[in-house]
Amino acid sequence: MTTHNPGRLDHLRIAINAAGRDFGRTLAIRLADLGAELHLAARSADAAEAVATEIRERGHERVHAYRCDLTAPDTVAAFAGAVAERTDRVDVLINNGARYLAAADLVSASDEDIVATVASGTAGTVLTVKHFLPLLRRSDVPDIVTMVSTAGTPGHFLSDAHEAFYAAKAGQGGFTEVLSKRLRPEGIRVISLYPPDFANPDPLGEAWESTPRGPQDALTAQSLVDCVLFAIGQPRDCFIKSFHFEQAWQQH
């Protein structure tokens, strides 16, 4: 059986979608620093390759870049197929992709933007898992990690996102909930994170170490990365289904 030191990820092969910017880029850089072999996808192949280049410049060569538009099923299948040509397994699949849509009211967004938002967050996540499942089943330590959102929590209303984003995140949450039950007999762990809006400083900049992390501060990307590392580093009898975070209230 494949084993690994929770402090190092050298034996893990990790696929991440939406890795070309924001938290996807943060995850990629931090996981590379811990030694993981990375398969990074973004809607733009150039964006994925730019992050891969940043990682290689830090001395980590085991990183590959792909194009994957979560609203286009053929590119999701092509992403999984291209990874399968390079490796016989994937140990961790991270569903980071979901299009954000901000709008003041329901009717202010175009029909096209609404469809793309729901498709990327819900259908894109379902299709990504579907096409990567054969590779995950070949791993001794398979984990599926999905970045949902507090917007996917019943009763939540504090995000300024459009209703379509709420719908997409609720779809992600419903999918991972049933997936966790159905894949557990195979030993595949399904881990969901439900963060509120959070601070995401550049992992290669000074702010990475200086961003405030006190009890009154917003959740940080550092803490989210730590949660992912904690969950995938647990013994295989430990199934952490989800992380739910308290939203910081601004004091006046």
UniProtKB/TrEMBL annotation:
<dbReference type="Pfam" id="PF00106">
    <property type="entry name" value="adh_short"/>
</dbReference>
<dbReference type="InterPro" id="IPR036291">
    <property type="entry name" value="NAD(P)-bd_dom_sf"/>
</dbReference>
<dbReference type="GO" id="GO:0016616">
    <property type="term" value="F:oxidoreductase activity, acting on the CH-OH group of donors, NAD or NADP as acceptor"/>
</dbReference>
<protein>
    <submittedName>
        <fullName>SDR family oxidoreductase</fullName>
    </submittedName>
</protein>
<comment type="similarity">
    <text>Belongs to the short-chain dehydrogenases/reductases (SDR) family.</text>
</comment>
<dbReference type="InterPro" id="IPR002347">
    <property type="entry name" value="SDR_fam"/>
</dbReference>
<keyword id="KW-0560">Oxidoreductase</keyword>
